Amino acid sequence: xxxxxxxxxxxxxxxxxxxxxxxxxxxxxxxxxxxxxxxxxxxxxxxxxxxxxxxxxxxxxxxxxxxxxxxxxxxxxxxxxxxxxxxxxxxxxxxxxxxxxxxxxxxxxxxxxxxxxxxxxxxxxxxxxxxxxxxxxxxxxxxxxxxxxxxxxxxxxxxxxxxxxxxxxxxxxxxxxxxxxxxxxxxxxxxxxxxxxxxxxxxxxxxxxxxxxxxxxxxxxxxxxxxxxxxxxxxxxxxxxxxxxxxxxxxxxxxxxxxxxxxxxxxxxxxxxxxxxxxxxxxxxxxxxxxxxxxxxxxxxxxxxxxxxxxxxxxxxxxxxxxxxxxxxxxxxxxxxxxxxxxxxxxxxxxxxxxxxxxxxxxxxxxxxxxxxxxxxxxxxxxxxxxxxxxxxxxxxxxxxxxxxxxxxxxxxxxxxxxxxxxxxxxxxxxxxxxxxxxxxxxxxxxxxxxxxxxxxxxxxxxxxxxxxxxxxxx
Length: 475
Prior knowledge:
The chain has a single domain (13-474), classed as Carbohydrate-selective porin OprB (Porin, Beta Barrel), CATH 2.40.160. Helix content is 10%, strand content 41%. The chain has helices spanning 13-37, 215-218, 304-312, 402-409; strands at residues 46-59, 78-94, 97-108, 148-161, 167-170, 179-182, 185-193, 233-241, 245-252, 271-283, 286-299, 331-343, 348-357, 371-380, 390-399, 428-440, 443-453, 464-474. Strands 1-2-3-4-7-8-9-10-11-12-13-14-15-16-17-18 form a 16-stranded antiparallel barrel. A two-stranded antiparallel sheet has the order 5-6. Helix 3 runs parallel beside helix 4 (402-409).
């Protein structure tokens, strides 16, 4: 997200204090009841897990366009490091209910940091610019690459069994306490979390800590999903889950400004609504899943057309012409996405996504993509006697609307893109392949390669060759 330095994130705000009060009151009360009645051993009520991920990524020099803007990807060779470490703490409250807290430490930046000869203010640069499908899903769009500690998630989840439903025992894992999970259930989640934790899931392309790196592959590219600078927001979500289908809906907060860290609590004026339908099917005698997602965001986002008019009349209020805020509520962005996965037994599986948004109002939270198509394959290592290893390969094609193109060509910039001009628009084309090896019970090492044609939709730039090494520890 854009180059605004993050605010301190150590406070919970009022909703956080309410959740904390709920835990302090309900947790000890229920614990006393369990001890008195010998329901459960107290240790089984807790879930404690940890992850640590570093990504070293670099690109070789490539052909530049001969012109630069505030978010131009540097054509000079560059190497960057990102680091994230997360503590996943959970506690069962009562039957079907649990509270989860995730303190997280993150730092570093993405590749393509601007060279010192750029005419633009270095303080404006975000650690993730120049490509809509950014190649490192562990980087954040903030103004400082220094490590920062913050609360990523703090939420309560309530599972309500539906009549006649069988259950399976869920093992303790990240943000999951050990408990029986009914096959048919209603799930209510309230608090601070990533909306992508619940929506647009995919078994093969969803987690940049263990799967594909690129932003276009970890989520629907055209879904401007509600989030602050680091990818989290306050939401209320409900899921109605049956063995063969599921319906999900959520209401979430959006940032006050584009890519902002501060969320807007005027829910009557600014909000994000997300709905998803999921259906299980069988193809070639194997189970698969398809998901249809729809979203509608209302913010202060101005339209690209109005911003372009201001640029062309030399009346834009900021220089460079970042779309960071608007003066009026009512900017609407809506869109659709389709997400499918098909397992192929012990071989692995295939997946694909297609997504679209109306492309009229400014991107506000995720990335500057208005249309996206992805297709990939995930191959397990059983065939070469490395059952915990994985090979992945995928392609993505991203595009933007004509209004968005005209804005960038007039010299405008979003929080990720802006070469000062865009006379030769081309779809952004991405190829990614990786090999992930399990070196020890908790240690994984991944080699990754990406080829990006027309970075930032600029047909005069690229192609960009990117190489990366990811180290991931989890327990």
